[in-house]
Amino acid sequence: MSGKRIVRDVLMCAAGALAVAVGVNAAEQRHQIFQFGPVPPQYIISPEDGARSHDHISIKAELAERLSHICEANAKRHGGSATIVVLDPFGYIIHEHRMDGQTYINQKAAENKARTALLTREPSHVLTNRAFDDVHTLIRMDQFGLTVQEGGLPIIVNDHVIGAIGVGGGAGGRAYGEETCARDALVEVFGPQPALLPAPAGAVTTGGGIPQRAPAGRGQ
Questions:
Q1: Residues 176-200: what's their mean pLDDT?
Q2: CATH code for the structural domain at 41-213
Q3: CB count, 10 Å around CB of 189?
């Protein structure tokens, strides 16, 4: 065996070991929040109701409604208004709640955020950060039918996606925000949730939930 081949094989083994280590570390970080196992029955559609639609994994309608009312109360507490949309794992609306003064744009934004979180299995904020200062990503995500606005979160219990929530319409502005409103509701109903992602370095968040580069001379 040549020396070059030996070096190549050693490097490939090292790369493989590193990939496994990174994967294990990522899994361990997820396990701090998510546990593997069956979904507790109090969180999902009952067997009797699910039998009619062959669905035994969707979030209960009453919990979807509860999430929206928690978010509504928190938005009011912070002087804001919001539209909240909760989807089942198949992308259908389980519950939609529009507070007074909300518009069609607010409704569609909330639904698109929830759908993006559902399809990507990640907070819509992940795409928000990816699209920062990158118009090409912004265009591609739009072509894929995804939004780059923050405010959408998957609803995950024991590592099963049982739905997604999206919040639009402000929900208290920069002092509170749509994504925080969604997360706080999930915490109250399901317990601890992953921390929210920070905005990219050098970015300020606009009212539309999309970070923009801060003007010269202005801090983050």
A1: 95
A2: 3.30.450.150
A3: 16
Q: Are 127 and 209 in contact (CB under 8 A)?
A: no
Distance CA 76, CA 32 (A): 32
Three-class secondary structure assignment of 137-187: HHHHHHHCCCCCCCCEEEEEECCEEEEEEEEECCCCHHHCCHHHHHHHHHH
The closest alpha carbon to 43, from 62, 29, 26, 28, belongs to 62
Residue 209's closest CA among 122, 163, 147?
147
pLDDT at residue number 208: 55
The per-residue pLDDT for range 107-155, each reduced to its tens digit, is 999 999 999 999 999 999 999 999 988 889 999 999 999 999 999 999 9
Does residue 137 contact residue 148 with C-beta atoms inside 8 Å?
Answer: yes
DSSP alpha helix (H) spans, the chain: 3-31, 47-53, 61-77, 104-120, 125-130, 135-143, 178-190
Whether the per-residue pLDDT at 81 is higher than 80: the answer is yes
Please, which pLDDT band fits residue 172 given cuts at 50, 70 and 90? confident
Distances (CA, A) of 50 to 2, 54, 158: 62, 6, 19
Check residue 214 and give its pLDDT: 54
Tokens standing for residue 101: 């003064």
- Which of 212, 172, 195, 219 minimizes the C-alpha distance to 74? 172
